[in-house]
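Workshop exercise sheet. Pairs work together: one partner reads the sequence aloud, the other fills in the structure field after running the prediction. Swap roles for the next sheet.
Pair: D.N. / O.F.
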Amino acid sequence: MAAPFWTPQAHADRRAVLAARSRVVAALRDWFTGQGFVEVETSALQISPGNETHLHAFATELKAPDGTAARRYLRTSPEFACKKLLGAGERRIVEFARVFRNRERGALHAPEFTMLEWYRAQASYTAVMEDAAAIIAVAAKAAGALRFTFRGREIDPFAAAERITVSEAFMRHAGIDLPACLSPHGPGRTAFAAAATAAGIRLADDDNWGDIFSRVLVERLEPRLGLGRATVLYEYPASLSALARRKPSDPRWAERFEVYACGVELANGFGELNDPAEQRTRLDAEMAEKERIYGERYPLDEDFLAALAAMPEAAGVALGLDRLVMLATGAPHIDHVMWTPFAES
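Structure field:
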């Protein structure tokens, strides 16, 4: 059994990595300040933790002085609160946010971690793509890393990122014509299931369109993304992008992207949806699916939906800070880069 993190020898073994983390955080704060961002701090305790189907929250109880109780949640992301600030008039904001996700544990997952999230008002999502690439280089320089590595894969963090659409990646790495599996009215499961099966992907009878997409992404695409240099995977199906704007020229696709390095997903960003009615419809659909699969649903944040009416066009992105530090230091597990790792017991 490994010694607790707080024993002097265990801490000494991790000290160099933790010092690198501190340098990375300081360098990122300097970079955002130089770009005109204001660092904000939003509340971790929320009415709604977020409304994505497969994200699970920690619930708690808020008691008033008279003893009456109300259900509250620890946030899975600071997104709703940050968008309220955009509605309030902020134009460039960044947060180093502690976030909480239940049912997540592994080398790349912890139930509590730090999410670096930032937003640019009146900017396209290509602007925050460029931010993410710049941040990778800033982190590498601060950590003194010439290469990022994870499980035998590596990248040059200073190289220009590859950009590839989801459609191109599905064809290149899985031989699947993804646009043929979509229609103007939405996803078509039958065609997609046939294409995935022909590509050698094993499916369950109850896999829906999104499940099939995830299986192909995890099995065929992710191991081939972010090799040699970072990859920006963009233009996701709109049906899998509940918080993103649709692409104006083709509403089957959304202004959503993810950044990969060494086969690891580092960041997820959007051209932000700011239509309250459409956002409500999408979040209701996410919660209906969550209830179907997991037997639970989270409330919608009515204050967030109201704030969208005041929010300008914007782009934003969430990046896993702990994962970034892992890659920059070569650490094999997320616990190695946390000052106080989550205690299992």
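Discussion prompt: The chain has one domain: 8-161+229-337. What would you look at next?
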